Amino acid sequence: MSKLPHIGTSIFTVMSKMANEYNAINLSQGFPNFPVDERLTSIVARLATENVHQYTPMAGYPPLLTKIAKLVLDSYNRVAIPETEILVTAGATQGIFTTIQALIKANDEVIILDPSYDCYEAPVLLSSANPIRVPLNDDYTPNWETIEKACSAKTRMIIINNPHNPTGKILAEADFVRLENILKKYPDLLVLSDEVYEYITFEEKHISAHTREQLLDRCIMISSFGKSFHITGWKIGYVVAPEHLMVEIKKVHQFLVFSVNSISQVAISEYQDIVDVTKLGKFYQEKRDYFKKLLEKSRFELKPCEGTYFQVASYKSISDEDDVTFCKRLITEYGVAAIPISTFYANGKDLKLIRFCFAKDNATLEAAAERLCNI
């Protein structure tokens, strides 16, 4: 008997598989296709012959924990204690899974804001808890009245994703004020803040939960080196949480992976001495703007993108098809793979919107745009 009976193959897997079958340009799955920084690969090449291949301590390579604390301090002016408030994980997804497994009990309720990334619901269900899917407004701003109505004495956690995948939206100051007011009414409520795209913001920087004094004691932060350093295949991220929550998170982590692969931790620890994450936003903003310019003559309407490396586009002027059907036809007839936004909703809400990933080299973006402009 399945523990996740309604969950099938991920839409990302489906679209990438179709892209391969039809030799389509893959703008569906969120990974860069350009080379990793040579400074990082050089570090890895050197470390391959050094004594860095055994288990690290369970919570992470101690120098890396110290570097993460410095990164958090430099980025958000938050003091995080390396030994008790930081955990290195096998990707942000493992950090999310571990956190939910550790802190959510049977019959608890967890509020998930749709459209939402698909890794949130499964660990809630596997905890015998209840995911409460609350849709964002159609412009992807939170409807705090609806969110508050969904809260009850059973609500244990609200998951926020900022900057937001798939929409590219960032939360405003007013959003955090409303969230903090809800927390005042429900003293046992926690916040899981998924900020894996924290350094990929454009005209305005996102407001991190790290900077919200009222959240610090009740918030679990999720970050990703994979997203920040273009190394998604390394599957390495980190969690920052107050000690009383981190104690429980580490209990699950030690039995799930125990420790994350050692060479990547040592390499990233060294790399942080020479890399500047503050330049990442400018790098991706240039790609966002270039992709937008390439599509100016297309029939797609591009929606505002405030962060992440995803561009949401409306195809209303092209077709009345549902978005899944349209995306499949986009692959088979035009040779470009995208992701239908309806698959991020519990109810499959279809606004005729699809998501492109622009974390690609310019040649790939140009080739894809040429095909998209011919539709």
UniProtKB/TrEMBL annotation:
<protein>
    <submittedName>
        <fullName>Methionine aminotransferase</fullName>
    </submittedName>
</protein>
<keyword id="KW-0032">Aminotransferase</keyword>
<dbReference type="GO" id="GO:0005737">
    <property type="term" value="C:cytoplasm"/>
</dbReference>
<dbReference type="InterPro" id="IPR015421">
    <property type="entry name" value="PyrdxlP-dep_Trfase_major"/>
</dbReference>
<dbReference type="GO" id="GO:0016212">
    <property type="term" value="F:kynurenine-oxoglutarate transaminase activity"/>
</dbReference>
<dbReference type="InterPro" id="IPR015424">
    <property type="entry name" value="PyrdxlP-dep_Trfase"/>
</dbReference>
<comment type="similarity">
    <text>Belongs to the class-I pyridoxal-phosphate-dependent aminotransferase family.</text>
</comment>
<dbReference type="InterPro" id="IPR051326">
    <property type="entry name" value="Kynurenine-oxoglutarate_AT"/>
</dbReference>
<dbReference type="Pfam" id="PF00155">
    <property type="entry name" value="Aminotran_1_2"/>
</dbReference>
<dbReference type="GO" id="GO:0030170">
    <property type="term" value="F:pyridoxal phosphate binding"/>
</dbReference>
<feature type="domain" description="Aminotransferase class I/classII large">
    <location>
        <begin position="24"/>
        <end position="372"/>
    </location>
</feature>
<keyword id="KW-0663">Pyridoxal phosphate</keyword>
<keyword id="KW-0808">Transferase</keyword>
<dbReference type="InterPro" id="IPR015422">
    <property type="entry name" value="PyrdxlP-dep_Trfase_small"/>
</dbReference>
<dbReference type="InterPro" id="IPR004839">
    <property type="entry name" value="Aminotransferase_I/II_large"/>
</dbReference>
